[in-house]
Amino acid sequence: MHDSPDPGDRRDAVCVVGAGASGLTAVKNLLELGFQVDCYERETAVGGAWNWRHDRSPVYAGTHLISSRPLTEFPDFPMPDSWPDYPHHSQVLTYLERYSAHFGLGEHIWFGTEVVSAAPTGDGGWEVTTRSTGGGSSRTSRYAAVVVANGHNWDPRRPTIPGEFRGRLMHSSAYKDPAVLRGRKVLVIGGGNTGCDIAVEAAQQAGQVWHSTRRGYWYAPKYVLGRPADQVNGRLLRLRLPLRLRQWLYRRTVRLTTGDLTRFGLPAPDHQPYESHPIVNSQLPYYLGHGRITPVPDVTAFDDASVELADGRRIEPDLVITATGYRPRFEFLAPELLAADEHGRPDLHLHVFARQHPTLAVIGLLQPDSGVFPLAHWQSVAVARWLRLRLDDPARAAAVQQQESAKPLAAWSKRRVVKTDRHWFEVDHLDYLRSLESLLNEMEPAA
Amino acid sequence: MTGFDLLRLKDWTDPVPPAGREVASRLPEDDEGRPPVLFVPGLGHGAWAFAEHWLPHTAGRGFPAHVLGPRPGGDLRAQVHDVVQTAASLPRRAVLVGHGVGAHVVARALARYPARAAVLVAPVLDGWAAAGSALLANPGGTLPALFGGRLRVSARQLFGSGLPAERAAEYLERIAPRPRAELLRRAVPPRPVGAPPVLVVGSPDDRVVSRKALDRAAAAYSGAPLLFPGMGHDLMLEDSWAEPIDAILDWLRKQV
């Protein structure tokens, strides 16, 4: 570094924000293509959301994977095949720690350091200001590129429900241990996977459980024909069946396994399968059938000790858990860098590449119908190869950029999804991987 | 070499079932941070083939050394799975060293795991050519196998003339090849992930893998084979076993 006039100038090095699953795979794949990497992590360990010690971690004691192991692991570092089909969150953390150690990523990570701001310098580079988490003096360094992997499951989206509630109200991010449910009267708001998981845990622990969902969903079981449901679904994809036929088969399968849930008072789904994030829960119908979970419609208002429902009913829970998801948040980036809309949702090519800033990329900002890790891996490979191509062959990089920008959105982004705040970054993992594959092939050096 | 391998529907829908894996290890006395070396034996050879000389020798030169015994009845896909699983279970990025058909397994594993480096020893990438050589060298033992019968290998096929006859007989007794039809094709090695350095090692006097096959294998990784004239196919069991492994470890030290 002695030949560099400015000690903060890291020249061709790349800055990675966050050392969770997405950040780790970004660091690994950038190193593999010969980049120098500085990764900044606000916590003192790797694992991000999957590290339950982290104050921003959303996992609770009973969190297990929703997608099965083969569809969740990194494609070049499998989870041990002796692990269960749906590993526990502590196993996922062990896996990420081993990934980091195996590829020697730790020495490239600055722990306990958060990124305060990242701003373009005008010549394609970035000025990144960091400081010790929670205060201390800040420090600014220059990088050739910034890869953002700060996660999107840490800033709770809290529903705005009018009125005051006298009981205890918590977001699912604060829910850690089923002990808080014991003997209570619990209302769980939210029909996502977390909401369903917590409703099931409440059914096992609480005195009474209401589960409020705005719409009917397709509740897929975790197992079909003795195999993890996503693996069975994959067989349909392997046969390249058209979407309509797959939707029909999905409806048949749900009918034959989960059965008709409207009998228990749940609304019928208002959308086709594959048009919202898949809900995978085998136990919810079980507890509905045992009367342990009472389905209720949307919550319209709080009124002291009671909760008003859309159908006019009033219930009196003493604990309300809102499992209403999270918002993406990039407080260190000016919103226009990511072309974010008024809700803070970025508009990125392939959910990865900033359209106006070729040296800014985001990893892991998507919601697939599989695990995120494999997609984050291939995103990182694409980003690393893109940055490499820009250095080695700027003319071709420009051509690739031109070609990519002409790609229709529908090729990689799911357009037919239910209109809610949280389905905007829903992708079909096969379509998405195909789009990444075509980008990777475009960037191959001409033979 | 083929492109990227993003869509792995076979592995997602029909994962290789887990199996107990036989792994023998010899660790160096002081851990100097060198990458672990994982040996993968070839057709009919068990972990013993490497445990005999190369495993302790590698550990003696400061590399943690492991050898993976083949899964009984496992096809190529299961063997590749086992190699990747074992490599990923090691604390650091591993160096993969495969022999014979084991080198074919390693070549395929390289597409699934970013190895630190890889060494293909007398690699059988072209099953037809290997079957042809075997027919020439040992028609009586090979012909029945092509019609579903037992494959018998002879000392002449596997060992050079330097190995004492009684030792050769002893080794032969432990070698029980059960070739699968899927090996009978000319495999194009898939592109390795993570661009590891790959070395091809062999002997021009090998009666299983011809000099031409060695050249072709090395060319697939844009290199030339490192040759040890006078040795047979089973370089790690020959009397002069130390020469190739020392050369491999010297090469490795330069790479890592």
UniProtKB/TrEMBL annotation, chain A:
Any one GO molecular function term: N,N-dimethylaniline monooxygenase activity
Alphabetized InterPro entries for the sequence: FAD/NAD-bd_sf, Flavin_mOase, Flavin_mOase-like, FMO-like, NAD(P)-bd_dom_sf
Keywords: FAD, Flavoprotein, Monooxygenase, NADP, Oxidoreductase
Gene3D superfamilies xref list: FAD/NAD(P)-binding domain
Family the entry assigns: Belongs to the FAD-binding monooxygenase family. Belongs to the FMO family.
Protein name: Flavin-binding monooxygenase
Automatic annotation (TrEMBL), chain B:
GO MF annotation, one: catalytic activity
Coiled-coil blocks: none
Domain AB hydrolase-1: 37-239
Classification via Pfam families: Abhydrolase_6
InterPro entries per record: AB_hydrolase_1, AB_hydrolase_fold
Protein name (database record): AB hydrolase-1 domain-containing protein
